[in-house]
Specification:
single chain; 412 residues; alpha+beta; Butyryl-Coa Dehydrogenase, subunit A, domain 1; Butyryl-CoA Dehydrogenase, subunit A, domain 2; 4-stranded mixed β-sheet; 4-stranded antiparallel β-sheet; 12 helices; disordered C terminus; binds flavin-adenine dinucleotide; FAD
């Protein structure tokens, strides 16, 4: 499909594609064949290769060591890296690091950028975003956040309990969301803090076990459960404005949702390619499987839906470069998460036993795509936002109860 991406976007994506074909995919095939995982040292070697080709951290401004692409221009490159199980990691465009870098870049002071953004981009430190809380706290409804940060002199004291903090197990710094004004509405009384993990009171309880695994890379990542027990940070640890945590998180998530869409579209495209190649080669019931109408129609639907998803993501990325594009991003995320889930499921089915086996990347893609309908806002949460917009609802000051419905329908 021709999407009329900018010249720059197409040029960088062509170089990323060459990097994937020449360096990354051959190593991935070997790891799948031998089932020996790729070490962290090797990932650092890939970073050096990416730097030599001016492909390292394409989403980060040049002054911080990246390639300075905006959302529209990074899009086709992110689709390319999504095609490999460790493509995003190989050029340091992987979640959650990429989203955390973006957040510090948007809101950090010069000192914070010096301390965290530079080493984060270079891969010298690791970060994690710590918002979701266990059962009685903030999840789909982040207004339920229970973690607090209380001012004590020129320090903040953080108390709370989080889980699902991706990459939190080995992180050096955590971006922690906490209520800083309990009298204000959570949207106005919540802030984000940069919390080094070696501070007293930062207690990593465990990695939460989950669907899917380490993939083919031998790096302890996982999703941490963390208790913050009287953690003291200086005033300078506040990221962005006091009380501006929700607005900042929204900006982080908007971009993060789209970059996820880009990578998962790449995975879906590769899964389809592998399936089509298999169906064309595989003979059964007097012909190739690719001649069976039942499968042909499903592949046709998948191609159509993936094209629609990629088009929606392009539209939302264009809007996001100039606004928060909340509804466009919600629609693109909801649609892409479902389309890529359906396609990975179809790919597994078309490949028969090879879809379940781990000689091919498809089984790994299948495991990794299911959470996408839950993380970064579950399907239902995005439908809720889209419906609120569709009905033009007007809410009370808690943004919960509908006060009036704007309607063109004249019932009198
Ligand atoms: C792999 C993975 C990585 C993650 N990484 C991070 C991270 O780095 N940092 C972080 O802070 N969090 C992270 N999370 C947490 C994630 O953001 C939450 O799991 C998600 O927001 C849902 O919250 P919850 O688990 O509390 O589910 P709940 O809020 O309990 O919701 C459960 C289900 O209820 C349904 N539902 C919710 N609201 C509505 C509604 N209004 N109407 C109808 N149905 C509804 C949805 O289907 C939802 O899945 C991660 C989660 C996973 C699985």
């Amino acid at each position: 499909m021709e999407y009329h991406d900018s010249e720059k976007a197409v040029e960088v994506a062509a170089r990323v594609e060459a990097f994937m074909e020449e360096e990354v995919l051959p190593r991935e095939r070997e790891a799948l064949r031998t089932q020996e995982r790729i070490s962290e040292d090797e990932i650092h070697e890939f970073w050096e290769l990416a730097k030599e080709r001016d492909l390292f951290a394409p989403q980060v401004p040049e002054e911080y060591g990246g390639q300075g692409l905006n959302f529209q221009d990074m899009l086709p490159s992110f689709e390319q890296v999504g095609r490999s199980l460790f493509g995003a990691l190989s050029i340091r465009a992987n979640a959650p690091q990429e989203g955390n870098m973006h957040t510090i870049e948007m809101a950090g002071t010069d000192e914070q950028k010096e301390e965290y953004l530079h080493p984060l981009v270079q891969g010298d430190i690791r970060s994690a975003f710590s918002m979701t809380e266990p059962l009685d706290g903030g999840g789909s409804d982040p207004k339920m956040l229970k973690t607090t940060a209380r001012k004590d002199g020129d320090e903040w004291v953080i108390n709370g309990h989080k889980w699902w903090t991706s990459d939190g197990y080995n992180a050096d710094v955590l971006l922690v969301m906490a209520r800083t004004d309990l009298d204000a509405h959570p949207y106005e009384g919540t802030s984000i803090f940069l919390v080094p993990t070696d501070l007293d009171g930062v207690n990593v309880v465990r990695n939460v076990g989950h669907l899917g695994g380490h993939g083919i890379v031998d790096i302890e990542r996982g999703h941490a459960e963390i208790k913050y027990e009287g953690v003291r940070v200086p005033e300078e640890a506040l990221l962005g404005e006091e009380g501006g945590g929700f607005r900042l998180a929204q900006l982080r998530l908007g971009g993060g949702r789209l970059t996820h869409c880009m990578r998962y579209s790449g995975m879906a495209e590769r899964s389809l390619e592998i399936s089509k190649a298999y169906l064309q080669d595989r003979h059964a019931f007097d012909g190739t499987l690719s001649e069976k109408q039942a499968l042909r129609h499903r592949i046709a639907n998948a191609e159509t839906q993936l094209h629609a998803a990629r088009t929606m993501v392009r539209h939302a990325a264009r809007e996001l470069d100039d606004s928060d594009a909340r509804i466009e991003v919600a629609m693109a995320k909801l649609f892409t998460a479902n389309v890529t889930n359906d396609i990975m499921d179809l790919a597994v089915q078309c490949l028969g036993g090879n879809g379940i086996g781990k000689d091919l990347p498809v089984a790994y893609f299948y495991e990794s795509v299911r959470p996408f309908r839950i993380v970064d806002g579950a399907d239902e949460v995005h439908r809720r936002s889209i419906a609120r917009h569709a009905f033009d609802d007007v809410y009370d000051e808690d943004m919960e109860n509908v006060l009036t419905f704007d309607s063109d329908l004249d019932m009198t």
